[in-house]
Amino acid sequence: MSEVEHFMPILMEKEEEGMLSPILAHGGVRFMWIKHNNLYLVATSKKNACVSLVFSFLYKVVQVFSEYFKELEEESIRDNFVIIYELLDELMDFGYPQTTDSKILQEYITQEGHKLETGAPRPPATVTNAVSWRSEGIKYRKNEVFLDVIESVNLLVSANGNVLRSEIVGSIKMRVFLSGMPELRLGLNDKVLFDNTGRGKSKSVELEDVKFHQCVRLSRFENDRTISFIPPDGEFELMSYRLNTHVKPLIWIESVIEKHSHSRIEYMIKAKSQFKRRSTANNVEIHIPVPNDADSPKFKTTVGSVKWVPENSEIVWSIKSFPGGKEYLMRAHFGLPSVEAEDKEGKPPISVKFEIPYFTTSGIQITSSGPSEALRWPTLLPRQWGSWWKGQPSLQEGGTPLDTSHPPGSTQGPLLLQVHPLCRCHSRLPSPFSQKRLIFKKSHLCPQVSLRGRNELFPSRGQIQPSVLFSSQSPKDWEMLAIPLAARSIWPDRQDHCFVAILLNVSV
User: Fold this and answer.
1) Which domains, ranges and CATH numbers included, belong to the chain?
2) Where in this chain does the record put each MHD domain (predicted)?
């Protein structure tokens, strides 16, 4: 009989005795286990292993399997046992965790067939690359980044209304759809950063137990508290944190329970939202424990719906939308046909689950974000007059056209065309920008400068007409013009608009 076969009998024995723990022992072997759905994942060790590492690995195995099979359950294990053997061989080697990144594993352990390539076998680039979490050659027609701050509040309140324990557990999740190998930067209202920079009086939070994704440059964070990273492609968790702080319950629950011996039990539950009226809690679920032998339920509520869940010995009060500053009431009635004595075991507390969008309990804020360095674009210089412009653009100010048709080397000054990053956001355009307009027709742009396609100058209009561009008033003999970048052009009322600056020496 192998050692792992002793696990289930020991587990059932400890469960019957009420002494179940996440670490079990048999002889000189330790069993460390977790339960997911109807499955037990067990790790064994004969030595003094690091327990936190073992449990982290087990949860990582669950995450990898779930990304491969969507639902990790007994049926998916039976249907995919060959792939599971391959994954376990890569996840752990000689008892040591190895490659646990699902994106890397999916590159060479797949569920689809591939054509055999002749030649010397090569490992996937992400395995040997310094940036193993991101593949090379990623391209998107539209670059997008989505960021979500998700927080959970854990509160334990006594029967008399005192908060016994409160903590905030949060995470920052991102969805990244960027081309190439971008390096991003993220700033938070971190208390350590604000104290170091003399902004101690500003609203800040003191983060604890911070855990970063492997893509974050830890040395940069330790130096200036800036989160700098090359993100994985797609969805991932950038960081998680915890705060031990006093938190006022966002949804306050008051309960009155009347038990009539050998007959019935009645509940009166009052829920009150204690956040601002402009916020709304969604998908509110209030779980109220009831006796195991309760039956004949009757409910009455002012809002939402109530459901009895006998397998969990609880009732669930569901409220789809709970605005701030509101108060609702629910009454429940159960029959008790077999009550003879008070239960000696303690009753679980009432629990509340809800979501409040655009609201963080801790007050954490994203103070800055964007690429860590300017985008690199080539400098374009005309080799001779007319290399870049085929026609004569007209610079208009108050209806008076200004002549810009002089060739290089003339007394009026040379024509210089230069492309470089100006800014990444329409709202950050420099203050000197005025209503001057430089009007070009499509025929004025040569192939090296013209935009490919019909909708890239004005995508929302669906046609190319004379293009209205921004220009600067100073210095006097230079006109700074901004046009949308060809491959990333978005209409300027969007906050993620990209610009390229063209400096044109007109010397009027």
Assistant:
1) 3-113 (3.30.450.60), 144-247+364-371 (2.60.40.1170), 253-355 (2.60.40.1170), 394-505 (no CATH)
2) 142-398
